[in-house]
Amino acid sequence: MRTVAALVVFLSLGLPAAQAADPHAGHQAPAPAAGASMTALSEGTVKKVDKANGKLTISHGPLVNLQMSAMTMSFKVKDPAWLDSLKPGDQIHFLAEDVHGALTVTQLHRK
């Protein structure tokens, strides 16, 4: 009788019986934001090239894959050779990703 009462309570809450039986059911990683593309390139303008630290400062539009607003910030770069061909004022398309806790430009193309 107790099991039936518990099942009635869970069903009245709108939970499937499988979730009611398993306390970990339904625990999953959050889905990406609607319309977010994990490979969407963002647009930006190079503000500073820091070869010594392997970083680019970029004024950029929204970073959809990271759910970040437009701003100016510094990023590590996947390929330090990119720093040799860029200068402040260059217009770029890029992909920034969280690589081991550091925001890193992993793809880069000049406009």
Report the CATH architecture of the domain at 42-110: Beta Barrel
Radius of gyration: 23 Å
Strand content: 35-45%
Q: Order of strands side by side in the largest beta sheet?
A: 1-2-3-5-4
Count of DSSP E strands?
5
The CATH class designation of the domain at 42-110 is Mainly Beta
Provide the residue-averaged pLDDT: 78
Biggest pleated sheet: 5 strands, mixed, barrel
Oligomer: single chain
Secondary-structure element order, N to C: HHEEEEE
Number of helices: 2
Residues in helices, as a percent range = 10-25%
End-to-end separation? 70 Å
CATH topology tier name of the domain at 42-110: OB fold (Dihydrolipoamide Acetyltransferase, E2P)
Note the overall shape: globular
Structural class of the helix and strand makeup?
alpha+beta
The CATH homology group name of the domain at 42-110: Copper binding periplasmic protein CusF
InterPro entries: CusF_Ec, CusF_sf
Keywords: Signal
Protein name: Cu/Ag efflux protein CusF
Organism: Niveibacterium umoris
Could you walk me through the main structural features you see in this protein, from its secondary elements to its overall organization?
- The protein is α+β, with helices and mostly antiparallel strands and about 110 residues long.
- Helices cover about 15% and strands about 35% of the residues.
- It is built from two helices and five strands.
- It has helices at about 1-10, 15-20, and strands at about 40-50, 55-60, 70-75, 90-100, 100-110.
- Strands 1-2-3-5-4 form a five-stranded mixed barrel.
- Strand 1 (about 40-50) and strand 2 (about 55-60) form a beta hairpin.
- The longest helix has 11 residues, at about 1-10.
- The termini are far apart.
- The model is unreliable at about 5-10 and about 15-40 (pLDDT under 50).
